[in-house]
Amino acid sequence: MTATEWRFTSPLSLLNDWHARADQAPLHELVLLGFTMDLPFLEQVAIPTARGLGARIIVVGDAGQGLYDPIDVRLAGSSYLHSLATCAGAFHPKLALLVGENDVWMAIGSGNPTVSGWGSNDELWTVIVSSGGLVSHTIAEAGTWLRRLADTSRLSMTHWAAELLREVAADISARPFAVTDLHVRLLDNLDEAFVHQLSAGPVDELCLYAPFISGEAIRALIHRLEPLRTTLAVQPRWTSYDGDALLDALGGQGVELRFLEEKHLRHGKLIQWRVGEQLYGLIGSPNLTRSALCMATAEGGNCELALMAPLPENLMPNGAAKSPEALAGHSTVRRRYPSPSLVLLGALVHSKGLEVTLARPQPEATVIHSSPDGAPGSWQPIGIIPPGEIALVLTVPEAPGSVIRAERTLPDGRIMQSPPVFAASPARCARRIAEAQGPRLRREYTVEEIFTDPELARRFNADLIRLAEILPRATSTRPAPGKVEGNTVRSVIEDRWTAHLEECDRVYGSSFTGLIYGPIAAALPASSRLSRWSATTSVVDESDEEEKPPESSPVPKIAPSQYAAYQRWADRWVQAVTRPGELSPLPLRMLMAGIYVKLLAAGVWDHSNDSWRQALSRLTKALVPTAGIDALEESTERLCAVTAVCTALLAQDLSLTGGRPDELLAASVWAKVKPLIAKADLDLGEDLLLPPVQPRARVVSRNEVQRLINLAADDDPLAEMKAEIDSAGWEITDRNGLWEITGNFTNPTPVATRVATTIGATGRPAVVLARTSTRWTLIAWRPPELVLLSDPGRAWRTYRITPPASPTSRFASADIASVPGRVGTAVHMSQAPPESARQVFADCGFDALQLRDYAIKKQSMQSK
């Protein structure tokens, strides 16, 4: 259903009507455009109501017409998005747009969002209501106009305000169209003046009134419409006009002049004409002036908006009839003050800092100042926009709602200041939906209490498993950006990282968000992240103000009687968040990793119990981001550090190329997460490098983790092997494809086979000679055949090794005779090897007999 009404009212009544709806429908968007903005007034009468209905609020006004002292503004930037706009003329449209799930209500008229514009003045509004999921032709035109307004180069506004208008326009354009009200047309002057869009006359009667009237506009209207009779209404002292210019434009024939009462300012704008018995009208923001009616925005005129439609009744106010000559010699034209030449359009808070945007580049450096509330003496310089630039991102943690202004020193020493703007946080101002629609933990736990309070720990166990079960389903059905996320609707202009932290606060609580993201979460200003759990305040005795609570240890102290319970819970938690094909969201997996690191530091598992390795391995592998879902750059930075710490715990005191079960487990994790570890910045995982304060603690040092990071960053595929050999005090040399290892190891065969296995994993054949002072082993490994010659042993032996076996696993035992997979019989090394063995060496690029002689010679030299 759609309906069109003309009201002497204000958008405030429209908002209150929505609030009083019997169906309690939420409000998605509230768009307010105006010339003069009274932000404290809006914060008293409109903002709380609209936010209570769930709306995201966008307020855009002319850069030179802010009717407020910044110290009186409390909610801009933190509850609603405020941006300035400027063009060659005045930014003058008057629009209130209310968008819900199935309804769109629109008011276009004459009143500014001020006490007088929405209260005491006589204003004229056209209200169009669409419901039932359909939008009228006129509302669809309004969506098109918002997009054109955002795209035009003739008007300056912040890129993010323009993007918000595009989002609202896209929402309206996506709705089904109702073929009604086709006789109601929305007109604008972005590209063509209003006067040229009116149908040419003649008309029987033309009626006019507005608070600002110029002779040029009256003459243009009369020339276009060719009225037989013209009626002009003015408030003799309050309307702005030049009487002599109006007399000249009216021409004297068929003219009626009305003087209107001056009890209230007649701020409505009306162009009404009659053809026969039918009345038509142009109603909206344009005054009867040249810049409003006779010029397009593209030509340097104002930016205006109006509706043209047949009228159901006469809207011309009554007044005292006067002779047009009563205007002679009278002029109430008011002095016009020039628009500010230094305009800061807006400021946006995001994860990289504060982004400020000027309307146009300045010839001198522009200093950006900030104040928490705009109070005198509170302003501080925070950055400089170079000459010729219009935008700057300042790496300062400004809180949403901070007051920002620009200053420039003129050549004569005078200081020019811009009108103030307010640091806007899209995440804080985002549309909210019902809290129950967003999965979350049932209470806000702290990291400390889940380790020290057994009852809360049991509750957390059940709560986390419940959340892990429902979150994958919730995220898999989550719409694309710009749609609902959790209990918030995200915008493409919204800083995704700040919004993500807010969502984590809501789902997991601020304490757990701190464990998930560590230093990068703590780096954001506290006021930019508010927990959604209810809070209470208490009165603290002044005598206690100097007493600080003792700092809690980063390592939890868990009662030994609870160790078994935490071991069981930890296994359940890991299983819950790493279900195959249904991984929990990355923040929950990272939370579990942080908890697991703390449990190991608390000594929950004794040193003879390695059951934690399987769970931590599974969890660490699950930290690898899912393409297209876990894509936030900032979360990946922290993720790499968390992954490095977890892998270092698994690899501690183990060989990544070894053959024991725990070594193979660590190696499998390493192979999967190595690319993440290579990008890790350990400073972002500093909070997980815990001190060994508990008797059975398993912790890693900064040096251990950094060595692992350096190893992962090494492009050499054999870096792990070389690092282990180096740490053992051995030497390894690549002699044109022959890898020679010398050291004080007892048995050279396991050393040689481990090196061969590592080289073979890169897809290359391997020839390895491992030597001690008394023993040596020569291996040629060309999968699946391996040829071995050793001393003692002194025989050529050939083996066939197929996956999942490897040279390392087959030769883990010291007894060569018991190794399975041997092909043929052993041949004494004084003889030539079997042809098949010689071919393996040849395929590796070597002659078997030459290498035998080389090994014997090297051993003889070492013995001497």
Describe this structure as you would to a colleague:
The protein has 864 residues and is of the alpha+beta class. It is built from 26 helices and 36 strands. It has an eight-stranded mixed beta sheet, sandwiched between helices. It has an eight-stranded mixed beta sheet with strand order 11-17-16-15-12-13-14-18. Strands 19, 20, 21, 22, 23, 24, 25 and 26 form an eight-stranded mixed beta sheet that branches. The model is unreliable at 476-488 and 525-551 (pLDDT under 50).
Q: What would you report as the Rg, rounded to the nearest angstrom?
A: 39 Å
Terminal Cα separation, in Å?
A: 104 Å
Gross geometry: elongated
Total beta strand runs: 36
In round numbers, the mean pLDDT is 87
Short summary of the structure?
Helix content is 33%, strand content 22%.
Which tags fit this structure?
33% helix; 864 residues; alpha+beta; eight-stranded mixed β-sheet; 26 helices
What secondary-structure arrangement, pairings included, does this model have?
Blueprint: E1 2-7, H1 11-19, E2 27-34, H2 39-45, H3 47-52, E3 56-62, E4 81-87, E5 95-100, E6 104-109, H4 116-120, E7 125-130, E8 135-136, H5 137-151, E9 155-157, H6 159-173, E10 177-178, E11 185-188, H7 194-197, E12 203-209, H8 215-225, E13 227-234, H9 243-250, E14 255-259, E15 270-275, E16 278-284, H10 290-294, E17 305-311, E18 320-322, E19 344-350, E20 353-358, E21 366-371, E22 380-385, E23 391-394, E24 403-409, E25 415-417, E26 421-424, H11 426-429, E27 431-432, H12 449-452, H13 454-476, E28 484-485, E29 488-489, H14 496-508, H15 510-522, H16 563-577, H17 586-601, H18 612-621, H19 633-651, H20 661-678, H21 702-713, H22 719-727, E30 731-735, E31 738-742, H23 748-760, E32 766-771, E33 776-782, E34 785-791, E35 795-800, H24 807-810, E36 822-828, H25 835-843, H26 848-863
Parallel strand pairs: 2-3, 3-4, 8-10, 12-13, 13-14, 19-26, 31-32
Antiparallel strand pairs: 1-7, 2-5, 4-9, 5-6, 6-7, 11-17, 12-15, 14-18, 15-16, 16-17, 19-20, 20-23, 21-22, 21-24, 24-25, 24-26, 27-29, 28-29, 30-31, 32-33, 33-34, 34-35, 35-36
